[in-house]
Amino acid sequence: MQFGLYAPIPMATVGSAEIAQAVSEALSPLPDGRCDAQFDLGVELLLAADRAGFELCLFAERHLGNDIAAWVLASAIASRLERIRALVAVHPGLFDPMMVAKLAVSLDRICRGRMALNIVNGWFDEEFRMFGGTVLQGEERYRRTVEFIDILRGLWTSETFSYAGRHYQVERGQLLLKPASAAPPEIYSVSRSDRGRDFIAGHCDWWFIDYPKGAQTVDEALRGLEAAVADMNRRCERAGRKVRYALNPFVALGRDEQHALDAAIERIFAYDPDPDTRKIEQRMLPATKLGCIGSTESVLRQLRRFEAVGIELVLCKIIPTVDNVRRLGEEIIAPMQARAASPLPLAS
Fold first, then answer.
1. What is the reported pTM?
2. What domain range is 327 assigned to?
């Protein structure tokens, strides 16, 4: 099993003194010309995560927010890392695929072949319009995203590439840089709808499985994940492809579940007495119901259950401190990696 984490930025981070500072300073000149606090935290945290055994970092994107832009943050930090892959969020409809293809190979080459794209197929309309995007709904949105991915892969793998689509046209497009590795950057995405799952099966390499709708317990969530994986396997078989599976639970260690959860909530409200309710209700709370909050033993046990279902990557939502990253490396990642490396016992 692989482990990842989020780059610490305001849209994706809770319980961080540095992020609270970055938000409070966002609309003012920085004192004494120093760096934005979210950048300093990102460097420190991700270097520690790299040493702790994490293998992927999602650089999420919110254009209409206090966040440093994903491409800038990934480019500034990821080249310093030895093992972590930079997963950069991209919104089709805001950037031309030709430009994204060039940005991607540029980052891939300075990261020694360790970058990937997280395709975000929809976002809120106000942001799209404000930043020059075109808002589409339903089938047309998916059709645009499929064309977007087709063009990326065509440019990455062809000397000259032309494309005539409904939303994009490329005439003899060329990239005079190619990806660092023979295999082009992988495509990650998330979708829950029936049409969205067909899109994942037909065009993506990794699927971030959403929290099973309606699940109230860890066991119900696990059954929902099993059903989702089985459903996606059937869709992939029809498409003649394979997709790998990822999950993003909130991970917190403590004496037991209540102790770990209380400590996380206390930390969140210590640095933001009026936190973003959308971030808490839609991002954190569902992720807490996946059984990765509690003692080290209980979290390891739950991760092994995920592994048995077919989950290959856990993108951890965490309180972003270096001490927390180190602890997860020692108590969670190292045992899981050691288990994977151990030969299976011979049958008697």
1. 0.93
2. 2-341
